[in-house]
# Entry
Amino acid sequence: MRHYHHVGLLPEPERDASGYRRYSARTVVDLLRIRILADAGVPLARIDALLHARPGEFAAAIIDIDAELGRRFGELAESRRRIAALDSGERLVLPAEVVAVLDRMRGLGISERRVLLERDAWILMRAMDPHAVPDRLREKNAALDDPETTRLYSACDRAVDWAADDPRLDRLIEDLDAWEVAHEGSDIGAGTRELTVSRIAETSPAWRRIVESLAARAAHRRHRTPTMTP
# Structure
C-alpha cells in the first residue's frame, strides 16, 4: 500500500481523529485491480493508465504490453543461453577446433595457467587476423604431435615460478634454441606466434628471460656474416 501511495497509483487518505486512514470501497477495488495487473507482469508505470482506460484502449494496451513482455522474454532467454555457455568460457569466444587444441594441451599435462595464456593469444589472433586461424591450427597440432615439442612445453611449464637467474634456465634455453634451429625455415610458430610470445613474456620473469634470450640468439644468427673459405 505504501509503495502504491509513493508511486501515485493510490491516493493516500487523510488520517481520522483516531490516527487511522480510512479507505473507501472504491480504493479497495482499485488496489485489487492494481495487484492483479502487477501480478500479471504489467509494469507499474503503465498501470495507472490502464485503471482509467476504456475497454478498447485497455485491450490495445494489453496487446502492446504482451508484445513488450515477449521481447523481454526473448532477451532473457538469450542471456540465459549465454550464461549457460560461460561454464566453458572459451567455447563462447573461440571455434570448436581451437577449443580442441586447448583441451589437447590439458590432456598432455600442460598447466591451466599456460593453457589460459594460449587461449588469450587465440582470442587476440582471431580478433586481429581471423584468416590466420586455420594455418595456425595446423601448425599447433603438428607441434603437439612432436614428442620433443611437448617435452619442451612441459619443461617451460615447470619453469614458470623460477627466478630469472635460476641456473636451470641455461639448459632449458639451450634446448629451446636447438629446437628453434631445427625448425628454422618451417611455418611452425611463424607470424602470429608473436601474440603468444608477448603474453607469455609478461607473465613470468623466467619466461621473459627465455623469450629475450631466444630472440637475441635468433637475431645473432640472422645477422651473422657467413665465413668465407679459400
User: Anything to note?
Assistant: The two ends are 104 Å apart (CA to CA).
